[in-house]
Write a structure and sequence with these properties.
alpha+beta, Beta Polymerase, domain 2, 7-stranded mixed β-sheet, 21 helices, 11 strands, 10% strand, elongated, tRNA nucleotidyltransferase, PolyA_RNA-bd, metal ion binding, magnesium
Length: 440
Amino acid sequence: MKLTLDPGAAALLDALHAAGYAAYAVGGCVRDSLLGRTAHDWDLCTSALPQQVMELFGTEQCIPTGLQHGTVTIKYGGQLYETTTFRTEGSYTDGRHPDEVQFVPDVREDLARRDFTINAMAYNAAEGLVDPFGGQADLQNGLLRAVGEPQQRFTEDALRILRLYRFAARFGFALDAATARAARQLAPHLDCISAERIQEELAKLLAAPQPGAYLEPAVLAVVLPELTPEKLTAAKPVVDVCPAGEENLPVRWAALLGALGETDTRRVLKRLRCSNACIEETAVLVRETAGEGVCGSFLLGHESGHSIARPTACGSRVPPQRTVLGETLAHAGEVAIRRLLGRYGLCTVERLCALCAALRPQAAPACALAAQRARQLEADGVCCRVSQLAVNGRDLMAAGIPAGPALRRVLEALLDGVIRAEYPNEKPALLAAAQKIIAS
């Protein structure tokens, strides 16, 4: 078994070997290399003690990131290489971190403390693959299995329960039966994990290609107690149809939590310490798709039997009671897409179309066309915002319209008229329309 090492990692391993120390690439970089994927982080492990590593490479090249746990980060070739001394770990009183570590001379002892077999492999060019727990076979068989006794691994660090489902979703692997059973049984221990770490793992899980099968009810009952089993079951297929990837997390969050409504969705994401940007974007998606029969009506021109007031511009925030998805004006599809572009921007409109397609599969073709139309409108610079009008506040004041709230209302009314094709986006026509609006 021969793997292609990152050049910097290879050079550091050669330097450690030349100084008489055992050293290996370890963990995720080995796993990803065996899978034929590009490894982005190359972690090293060595028999050298932290102080010996710093003496070998010099204080200018080393960052003492975790000396008490044996970790030194080496700067080399513009990259950072986390280098940790072989170690075993003591008890985990807090269910998250070892109370103490003991440095050991053998890499196999170090690998025995790791979470899953696919992460418990080491490699160097001289010895090849060191795989005492069958990680390579598990990779080939598409199986995620704990190292040693699963109960012990999850009791040591409850976060490994979420990591189990995150890794399985990322690679599309099956779960070893004993490992999955232990994860379900020990899921209540997740209550000792910080909200930030839970959010980080959930985000990585949701970003996976098809995470629905890995949203384990026993686990989500602890980390997302607001989501009932029934709502979770209904959300899973919707989540899977939404576009994957970290950039689409708001869509996936909205698909998962949308049944809770905007207020509770905000509350959940705030509790999980999500970024304000993620919370706001997810809230918009939930709000604009809330209510059975509403989602997608802006694409299909469905009438809801009532008229919704013209939207009032208010920056990036929109009053919760206002929505454009149920709009019943003529040419509702085109009008609503332009309203959405003006209110939220192209990225949000594309996400709305994706979420609507997932919620209403029969509308997927119309959603795709709406997203395409939104991109074309944006590319063509079609007027969707007050800033794109052929007149501005100074023009209106020069025409005798006083500054203040009235001026803003006129601009919004002009935008509404342009979007609904009542008059062209041309200065003379807009000034004439403004006089009629102010006189009415």
